[in-house]
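> tool_call: predict_assembly(chains=two)
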Amino acid sequence: MSSVLYDAQGPRAKRRNVLFTVVFLAALMALLWWVYSTLEEKGQLAWPLWEPFFTGTEAWSTYIWPGLQNTLKAAALAMIIALPLGAFFGIARLSEHAWIRVPAAIVVEFFRAIPVLILMIFGLALFAEYTNVSSDDRPLYAVVTGLVLYNASVLAEIVRAGILALPKGQSEAAMAIGLRKGQEMRLILLPQAVTAMLPAIVSQMVVIVKDTALGGAVLTFPELLSSANTMSGYYGANVIASFTVVAVIFIALNFALTSFASWLERRLRRAKKSTGAVVGVDDAEIAGTAGTGTGGTT
Amino acid sequence: MFDFLSDYDILGAFWTTVQLALLSAVGSLIWGTLLAAMRVGPVPLMRGFGTAYVNLVRNIPLTVIILFTSLGLYQTLGISLGAKGVEDINFRLAVLGLIVYTSAFVCEALRSGINTVPVGQAEAARAIGLSFSQVLWLVVLPQAFRSTVGPLTNVLIALTKNTTVAAAIGVAEAAFLMKEMIENEAQLLLISAIFAFGFVVLTLPTGLILGWVGKKVAVKR
């Protein structure tokens, strides 16, 4: 194959590639052997440590499923609350009036610059001090608060990018047929922008799911990661086994979301009826970091 | 009202944050560049390894990786990375976890930079008789490097914010100190404002300056 970096290969390059393959394979095997022998030496591959996950449903129904439920619940709540907030701030940042545009920009840039964990810790103390939410519910509230504050500002950038990505002719046509500003946004721009943003929104879901794990590690929120901790205590220090199972679940969940987002993006780029404006999967990552100015572009 | 602040080493905590960020940035740049080289290279096995690594690591929460370095690597397997004393060990483990995670994103940033160079550029360079190394050094890489500044900046900012996850294994950085202070003092809003301000100071100028540089050097197409 040919790429921008190298040409189609001749016999010498092919021989060299075989050599590289063999050396790399040897290094990979050595690494795997080292991992295997270390695990074996510490007795972490003993069947009793792995057995709970393969025989019987106790580990799944007592620890993993409730943890996964909490992870999904926090992620879903955060997304549902953050979407309208993000849409509001995204549209506010596009306002013609500086007194709306500037404060919205400050709020969005501020919350994008702060780590989610800081927001969660703040949320936990806030609910403890100023509300009477019971101490059992507080971690969930704090996790969702932190996720909403951060992700609403990221979604605001995605919404803004989605609206800006539409061809100029759309808003010009809306003005030409005499729509007001609100009507133009509501009837013409937003419906098209929402379609364009879908891939970026789905891949933001991956970020949210990953960040719920912070709640488990620092705020005692009983989600999937913290269930790994409890399990390894209960089943006799099977840390490696528990973490492997939990990591595999996270990978499967997020890989499904990522693939769905890429599929949506490909589909939208192919679609003939649309304006061709798409806020892609990669743009979501760009919008997720503070101070980059314009946010995503397409 | 501000008296209690002198009891805590806030600057020290932020210095730990900066150290975590800088060490992990250097490490993940090196490992991420190697991964990117594997992913764009001609050897299928290396390409497969790079792709698998990036897809696996990107989908695991950083928190899981960092907790695993402490509970799994250190407490279960006894790997302490040559450090003595709990504080040192946790710090090094956190850096290791951050490198493992961030290098996947560095790899993708570099790869996207290389992908912005159209194949026609290399074909034109070969057509005028440049050798392989000349094609790389004179035509392809200069364009690729210039378009990676923007994406790499985003990775660096995300890394700075991600160092807070090290609090999960007890590294005494900013988020860890913030939690401790909130638990001990009845000054929630003031303490939160201080730490929020600290992170704004760390991330916003980096983003603005490097973002500006990135736009300046990027190849207009």
